Amino acid sequence: MKSLLSILLFGSILFADVDYKIENSNIQVNEAYSYNYNRLRLNLNYAEDQYFTTMIADGVNYYGKSYIDSTEFALFKTIKSDTPVSTQTNFKDYGKGETYAKLYRLYGGYEDNKNRLSIGLQNITMGVGRFWNPTNLFNPKNIYAIEPDETFGVTAMSYTRHMSDASDLSLIGSIRDDKSFKYAARFKSFLEQVEVGINLLVSDQTKMVGYELEANLFDTGVEVRSEGAYISSKLNFVPKDTEFYQAVFGADYGFVNGVNLTVESLYSSKEFNDVQILSNLNSEIIQNMTNSKFYAGASLSYTFNIFLDGSILYIDSFDSYDPFSSATLTYTLNDYNSFIIGVMAQDDETYYLKWQLSF
Description:
Layout: H1 2-14, E1 17-30, E2 35-48, E3 51-63, H2 65-68, H3 71-77, E4 92-93, E5 97-111, E6 115-122, E7 154-164, E8 167-175, E9 181-191, E10 194-203, E11 206-216, E12 223-233, E13 242-254, E14 259-268, H4 274-278, E15 294-303, E16 308-316, E17 324-332, E18 337-345, E19 349-358
Antiparallel strand pairs: 1-2, 1-19, 2-3, 3-5, 4-5, 5-6, 6-7, 7-8, 8-9, 9-10, 10-11, 11-12, 12-13, 13-14, 14-15, 15-16, 16-17, 17-18, 18-19
């Protein structure tokens, strides 16, 4: 895999069209621990005929003595990418802050009208959920994070065959931190105006069978979707071969005045306590280990004008846990600068200001 990636990377660079972008994201967070988060990101893309290569590298800095000395930050530092080679440097402590560098994505491949092959550190997408993705055991999003789509990459080979205008078959093989392999297959097709998907996954730790459904609800303009997974996995301090299933049901609707509404619910046949979750932070199903059996959420977004966007999100499990809510207001100054003011609330409130500079 390394040899093939090197050929794709360096062979294409010699005659490639080079596209690069530098982004700096700075987030000032005020919560129980006030701190500043800064990420400098270099994004390089090369393309020549049907061949492509992408590299994304980050320099990350946390500044705030009370936060870097906290148990929360110590726990965060233990979470690593599930890859055979480390994708980040050690944290460097310089007194009031800590910094490190990481390789976020590095992959290359080939694509034509019928085929797409990608090899390297990449993002694998599965599922149709907006808030939860029980079938995605590669790069699950974290809807409770300030940046929910920032996920670890996986070292994988992904091949998609476009069998027809309405059918795709994807085959995925990845290698994990312990040098074991994880394999997955995904088939999607349109059947009577419904997009249907079947997902399969197997590894030494986990087996999963899942489905995806997406369709327009007659002529109402409402898009409905569902995603579900039956999972069997070996966990620490949990009965071996724990088996459970999860299902997501959701809908989206765009109003004529520019308001977009998304609703979604998650059901899990099994719930996990905090000790079980903390004991399995590096498990490939950690995002599936929920505290409650049922969650429901809704989000509203609205574009006020070409410069200003707003959104709110509310999620509740209807049990002893506090509901989660968030709100953001995004101001796009120009093609290079955007500002986001946000607040998140659950056990306590977190306020943040994000400035993203691109050039």
